[in-house]
Design a protein that fits this description.
Number of domains: 6
Low-confidence stretches: 1-20, 858-879
Length: 879
């Protein structure tokens, strides 16, 4: 490259290599006026270094020229050298400080080689503000020679206008005129601006003031819902700037909130604002929700040091002053300013999260290779989670989504060299350096990963998932979050990556509640499920398997945040509710028919003492089952039931179902006595005393004790109430926790005793004295089956399936679904089965019923007994 008539300034910086201090260094400025090649300079420098023991660095001005294009955006600055350069850089001088310019949201730096013998450095500025106005310098490096060029870039920007009114709401509810003060301020202030204030009412537009401040009266008759004001600023006829402000008007028909403390009277739906106290930046907001109802105060006032930190991070994200030292300062300040003990406001939290987000953008364009920066980032992020954010769930959702996106980006972009584990209160970072398999434990989360990535970063985050938005209203968060970053992952079609993640659940999983393994999608701020599946572990841990499809590619890395969601309601089987309603309806009708037949044929079927005992127990069983089924139907829809009625229904169901089972126990005891003590019949007085005690008093005492223990005595019952408001039934709080056990334990004991009675009857059938007259084993088997079929409904044996339903889980597989269907069918139709076995299946009842019918119908029927003839004496009469 040749320069004609140019002014060359050369600065020699000579540093001796003998290890001495700066006293042995020297600077020389040389000014040349000549035409020569730039390569000759590098040749001279090389000879000087060869012939001396010094290190020479040369800075030149005049060998490179800068061109500036500022006619339209983006503004472009470029420097071109007729040689191949190894580096290009840009800087801007602000207040006697040289600030580095790097890639960001505003600045774009490029170093290209248009040809094999030239280099071009360009800087583009998109939407720059006043920060970017100043003297720019481009620097191109070739070896020890720096080629520099400078140029000034003025950026014409419109003034910042601020328009305020006092009062914020114009109160026209009573007076015909209201006084208002409107102020228009310009920043930076200047005497060249002409300011005009306007009022744009519903009926006319009027120039109110040729000054920055207007104070006057407004006629309420000229305005309706809002008063529109405008500020016009001009400095020449071709340049005008506007700022508008809408002032709400409170009329006599409007709802409003009365003034409270610092908050003025405000129209419904309008947000009032207030300035911050000294030492804080921002504003406070409060919205009038309705008539005399204020919303919560949203305190967006941030401490001045946090506001300055946010501004510094924002400038770095724009590309202004990006250096490792400034990045380190931001992370360290975040760590120091995010102490929860400083009583942070929502403005503090918002500013710190925005700072994290800006640093995420910085880390995309500027390589951060510092373990200490990673440590400061983790400590600051952990402290932010320990702060109180907001009482508004929507605000927390928005902040948490931005927080997670920033943490994901910084975890991916910051390069860690030596640290394999960094721990804090709410975050834990671990590294798997170039391992084909990776097994780690972070905050109780066990991770096992098979990956083709060179390096895997893992970050466990506590407390965050409760705040993240969830589009699926049927699920709720139930575990912490795990960020997985796979660096330099292999090609997309490689199927080798697979992860298994075991999450400890934040609360014990209730029975039949499904777990969903999910990962966070930053593109739409929601949880996704594709590529992950839940493997049933237990009620305290969830095991998830995720494949490569669940990992999001960002550049050469794959990043995802994994967690789990739990269904709010249990899994429901198809048609189960319909079966329940149909079965209960059939049972209620059947029990009514059964009781009617019993009343109608009572004298005929209860002639003997034993049959009287049996039918007395059957009538009580049917009566209590009928009442329990009716109340069960009455509590099927609980949304509109008042709380006292729900409690009454729960107590009634508890008592009636227990009474039914205790009467089943009475029947079982009578049968057992008659089979074992054949020649010692049960006396009537003993039976009625025993049955009244067992059938009425025992269930009443059981219900009373359960109610007092769980509802009346303070601090008892594992902090559990007696009934569940959603189901109007007893509560279940875990293993041996909850009032449901006051029902299950007695029912389980009674069912076992009834099963024992059935076994005794079957064994009696198999004894030789009973079976010697039988020549066919098939008849014996048929007799046993008939005994089981007849006794199961009236002994409640089918309720044993309920224990299978209780201890199993519908999410485990089809077997548990079969158990649920079987339990529902057999027990909702229990009344119908009692009608079949207690009336239609009993010979005496059929005969008496037919005798009665024959009085009205001239026909005869010949019926054969369906019961086994092998049971004899009192046992056969009982059955």
């Amino acid at each position: 490259m040749f320069l004609n008539c140019c002014f060359l300034s050369i600065c020699y910086i000579i540093t001796h290599t003998d290890g001495s201090d700066d006293k042995n260094s020297a600077k020389f400025n040389v000014t040349l006026n000549a035409s020569f090649k730039a390569t000759q300079l590098e040749k001279v420098i090389g000879e000087l270094e060869h012939n001396s023991t010094s290190t020479i660095t040369v800075e030149t001005e005049g060998l490179v020229e800068m061109s500036i294009h500022s006619e339209s955006e983006p503004y472009t600055l470029s420097c071109q050298a007729e040689d191949m350069m190894s580096e290009c850089s840009w800087s801007i001088r602000k207040e006697s400080e040289e600030v580095v310019v790097w890639n960001g949201s505003t600045a774009t730096v490029r170093c290209v080689h248009p040809s094999t013998s030239s280099t071009q450095a360009t800087l583009s500025l998109s939407n720059p503000d006043r920060l970017w106005s100043g003297l720019y310098t481009c620097t191109l490096r070739s070896g020890r020679v720096l080629y520099k060029a400078s140029g000034d870039l003025p950026i014409p920007l419109p003034p910042d206008l601020t328009l305020k009114s006092n009062p914020e709401n114009l109160d026209c509810s009573s007076d015909a005129k209201q006084r208002i003060r409107v102020n228009c301020s310009v920043s930076p202030p200047s005497d060249v601006y002409n300011i005009t204030l306007y009022v744009l009412s519903d009926k006319k537009t009027e120039v109110m003031s040729k000054d920055a401040v207007f104070t006057g009266d407004i006629n309420c008759k000229d305005v309706a819902d809002y008063l529109n004001t405008a500020c016009e600023v001009t400095n020449n006829p071709d340049e005008k700037h506007f700022k508008t402000l809408t002032v709400p008007v409170i009329t006599s028909t409007d709802d409003f909130c009365d003034s409270v403390s610092e908050w003025p009277r405000t129209k419904k739906g309008v947000t009032a604002t207030r300035s911050c106290e000294p030492g804080r930046v921002g504003q406070k907001n409060r919205t009038c929700k309705g008539k005399h109802v204020w919303g919560p105060v949203e305190n967006y006032c941030a401490r001045e040091e946090i506001a300055k930190l946010l501004n510094k991070a924002e400038n770095l994200a724009k590309g202004f002053g990006v250096t490792p030292e400034r990045i380190r300062e931001v992370f360290l300040d975040m760590k120091n300013f995010s102490d929860p003990k400083l009583e942070p406001t929502l403005g503090d939290v918002t500013s710190l999260i925005n700072t994290l987000d800006y640093m995420k953008h910085v880390s995309k364009d500027f390589v951060i290779k510092s373990d200490s920066d990673m440590e400061h980032f983790i400590d600051a992020s952990s402290s932010i989670l320990s702060m109180h954010w907001s009482d508004d769930a929507h605000v927390n959702q928005s902040l948490s989504a931005k927080y997670l996106q920033a943490v994901e980006g910084l975890t991916q972009n910051i390069q860690v060299n030596q640290s394999t584990e960094l721990n804090s209160t709410n975050l834990l970072f671990q590294l798997c350096p170039r391992e084909p398999t990776c097994s780690r434990n972070l905050l109780g989360i066990n991770v096992a990963l098979i990956s083709s990535a060179q390096q895997v970063k893992l970050m466990a985050i506590d407390r965050l998932t409760d705040w993240l938005p969830n589009d699926d209203a049927t699920t709720v968060s139930c575990s912490d979050a795990l960020v997985v970053v796979q660096e330099n992952a292999s090609r997309e079609e490689d199927p080798g990556t697979k992860m298994t993640i075991e999450f400890p659940l934040t609360s014990e999983r209730p029975q039949n509640h499904k777990i969903v393994c999910v990962y966070w999608q930053t593109s739409n701020n929601t949880w996704a499920r594709e590529g992950c599946r839940w493997i049933h572990k237990n009620n305290t841990h969830a095991l998830c398997e995720c494949d490569r499809a669940s990992l999001d590619r960002t550049g050469t890395a794959r990043t995802r945040t994994f967690s789990t969601l739990m269904s709010r309601v249990p899994v429901e089987l198809d048609g189960l509710n319909t079966i329940t309603l149909v079965g209960l309806g059939a049972s209620i009708c059947s029990l009514i028919i059964f009781l009617a037949i019993e009343c109608f044929l009572w004298k005929a079927v209860a002639k003997t003492k034993l049959s009287h005992f049996r039918h007395t127990a059957l009538v009580n069983i049917a009566t209590f089952l009928l009442l329990a089924d009716c109340i069960f139907l009455a509590s099927a829809v609980t949304e509109h039931l008042p709380e006292p009625f729900c409690l009454i229904l729960a107590v009634a169901k508890h008592f009636f179902y227990l009474a039914m089972f205790f009467w089943m126990l009475c029947l079982s005891i009578v049968l057992l006595h008659q089979v074992i003590f054949i020649f010692q019949p049960l006396r009537a007085k003993v039976f009625f005393t025993l049955s009244a005690t067992i059938g009425y008093i025992c269930p009443l005492v059981t219900v009373g004790i359960a109610y007092v223990y769980y509802e009346v005595i303070p601090g008892s019952g594992d902090s559990s109430s007696y009934h569940n408001r959603e189901t109007c039934w007893l509560t279940y709080k875990g293993s041996m926790k909850g009032s449901i056990y006051s029902f299950m334990v007695p029912v389980g004991v009674i069912t076992l005793m009834n099963l024992f009675s059935m076994v005794v009857v079957i064994v009696t059938l198999l004894r030789p004295t009973f079976s010697e007259s039988k020549t066919d084993d098939r008849e014996m088997v048929k007799s046993i089956i008939k005994v089981i079929v007849i006794l199961s409904p009236i002994f409640g044996v089918t309720w044993a399936l309920g224990f299978g339903v209780f201890v199993t889980d519908l999410t485990d597989g089809p077997l548990w679904m079969i158990i649920n269907y079987a339990f529902t069918i057999t027990n909702t139709f229990q009344g119908f089965f009692i009608l079949l076995t207690g009336c239609i299946g009993e010979r005496k009842v059929r005969e008496e019923f037919l005798k009665t019918v024959s009085l009205f119908v001239s026909s005869s029927y010949h019926l054969h007994s369906d019961l086994p003839d092998t049971l004899y004496l009192n046992a056969s009469e009982f059955l």
